[in-house]
Design brief:
This is Squalene synthase HpnD. It is built from 14 helices and no strands. With 290 residues, it is an all-alpha fold.
Length: 290
């Protein structure tokens, strides 16, 4: 199995909606973004699959060293990359300006998952969202064809919108793992106890809390599109596909009255494919989330 095939397998195996955003890309861009996504899956799996936090930290440190080794050897005849994901990523680093610091920022997001399970306020949660999604968005925007510095602001904001949607969808699933990403100050504002979420108690207070968080996520989508220059929309169609898919999911969460404590709401593959195709062909011109 070649490094590119390994990354393709990793991406397909995850069953993520990101797959649909990559479908229509030219070959070189598709290989680059698939390698980046496979990297994100690899380091995320470290957190999800390691029962012992110290073992997970050791593995993340290994990844950090591998990244430094690769980047420090880029100006040599053969850059050093021992993992197939980094081998697949290496040829694209210079052509798409895949900066080292953003890969390390993503690693820091994984460490945050190991080191804390609660967030005091939205400012803290925003920082987490940047590390696990915003940094990814910035690199993805470069691969898709960043045409304006403003595109980075769009990518960061869109990453936050996607991550907030993930958080709202997975409230119940995360609670069963002992994690609550919703800010403590928000729970207090709506008189929702952590125990209520951890024990799966759905009530009016929880519904009001989720409506508040939904509005915040909705605004993140609006802000992302407002930051994206019109002339950059065509190049950023893969990101707009992700926005369309995840915003539709966000609406599904609201339509279910936020019944997320005991089920994982999702979109069907055919619906994701329709959203991807229609956004790629024509919706990118006028898509908005107002």
């Amino acid at each position: 199995m070649t490094p590119d095939e390994y990354c393709q397998h990793k991406a397909a195996q995850s069953g993520s909606s990101f797959y649909y955003a990559f479908l229509f890309l030219p070959s070189a861009q598709r290989r680059a973004i698939t390698a980046l996504y496979a990297y994100c899956r690899e380091v995320d799996d470290v957190v999800d699959e390691c029962q012992d936090p110290s073992v997970a930290q050791t593995k993340l440190t290994w990844w950090e060293k591998q990244i430094h080794q690769l980047y420090d050897s880029l100006d040599t005849e053969k850059p050093i990359a021992t993992h197939p994901v980094l081998q697949a990523l290496a040829p694209h680093i210079l052509s798409y300006q895949i900066e080292r610091r953003y890969l390390l920022d993503i690693l820091q997001g994984m460490r945050m998952d190991l080191e804390q399970s609660r967030y005091l306020d939205f400012k803290q949660l925003e920082k987490y969202c940047y590390h696990v999604a915003g940094a990814v968005g910035i690199l993805a925007a470069r691969i898709f064809g960043q045409e304006s510095p403003a595109t980075a602001a769009y990518a960061t904001q869109l990453g936050q919108a996607l991550q907030l949607t993930n958080i709202l969808r997975d409230v119940g699933e995360d609670a069963r793992k002992g994690r609550i990403y919703l800010p403590i100050e928000d729970l207090q504002r709506f008189n929702v106890k952590a125990h209520d979420i951890l024990s799966g108690q759905y009530n009016d207070n929880f519904r009001a809390l989720m409506q508040f968080e939904y509005t915040r996520a909705q605004q993140a989508y609006v802000s992302a599109l407002q930051a994206l220059p019109n002339e950059a929309r065509r190049a950023q169609r893969p990101g707009l596909i992700m926005a369309a898919v995840y915003h539709t999911l966000l609406q599904e969460l609201a339509d279910s009255d936020f019944q997320v404590l005991h089920q994982r709401i999702s979109l069907t593959p055919i619906r994701k494919l329709w959203l991807a195709w229609s956004t790629w062909v024509w919706r990118w011109r006028h898509i908005n989330f107002q």
